[in-house]
Amino acid sequence: MSNTLSNVAVQQFPSVFTLEYQQLVRKLPPTIMVDTGVVGDIFNTAVTSPFTLSDRGAYQSDIPPIDAQYENVFGTFLNKITNVPTDVFQQGEVKANARRMLAMQAARAINRMEDQIIIDQFTSDPKITKIIPANGTNLTVEKIRRAASQLDIDNVPAGERYFVAHSNQKESLLGQTEATSSDYNSVKTLVEGNIESFYGFKFIWFGNNPEGGLDLTVDIRTCFAYHKTCALAAYGAVDGFANPGVHVAFDDRSVSWRVIPMLRMGAKVILGEGIVKVLCDESL
Fold it and tell me: 172: how many CB neighbours lie within 10 A of its CB?
């Protein structure tokens, strides 16, 4: 095999990756708050507790300050990386499509990992205390109503609400008349067999992801209903590299090229009242 390598293909590969990444439909990062270019090992955001107004009192009198509560919520970054040996940069071989496919798979892997970092934080974050039990049923319209009610109780804004569930929950929901009937939902649901929005939530559906996906313990799947302001995703600054991005390097020991996708990201729930865990029984 020739040791003469195509420098042009190597230099262009990060741009090919960026194009593929930008064309992907991103699921979870756009549904929460995002901070980019964060320097250091820890990211944080300040949370201000609600406060009330009082009567003005006599004009020209002092306005007493209130004791507003502030909380700094801290999170840590995760560094995700892999190493893919490849010969698609060998000069003299027509492998443009192979390089594009490799860039596409790298972009998809990073895309899925971004979602997984957020899902894992939703699953384990102690700030989340609202839970709708499975009670022997999969996802039902009643559970969606209860999730909305749990958010309403704490005056969580009605806009920018999301519901994250597995395709098994979609199948269950599409079997219920109230979710598919034109009396309750759009005709588009009946025609396309999909639920994009219902009861004030925009639905985001997941299948089985190699990174883990939505937690399934025995037959109980953990789903989430939440508002955009409930959590933060932070992307760390990486010296000399884009984040997320790929690095292409030549390995002298194996005399081959290595494509190294990289992601430095963290997620943290900042307003626990803005998210509800919805447990669904998939055994039925």
Answer: 20
Torsion of CA 172, 173, 178, 181, to 10 degrees: -100
Tell me which residue range forms the domain holding 270. 7-47+74-281
Q: What is the CATH number of the domain that holds 180?
A: 3.90.1690
Residues in contact with 110: Cβ distance below 8 Å, sequence separation at least 6, in sequence order: 21, 80, 244, 261, 263
In this prediction, residue 255 has a pLDDT band, given cuts at 50, 70 and 90, of confident
Which tokens hold the place of 42? 């820890």
Question: CB-based contacts of 185: which residues, under 8 Å, 6+ apart?
Answer: 179, 195, 198
| SS3 annotation, 74-135 | EEECEEEECCEEECCCECCCCCHHHHHHHHHHHHHHHHHHHHHHHHHHHHHCCCCCCEECCC
- Inside any domain, residue 2: no
Quick: pLDDT tens for 171-216.
999 887 665 555 455 545 544 567 888 899 999 999 999 999 999 9
Looking at residue 176, what DSSP letter applies? S
Residue 244 lies in a domain: yes
Tell me if 135 is assigned to some domain: yes
Is residue 30 assigned to a domain? yes
Domain count within the chain = 1
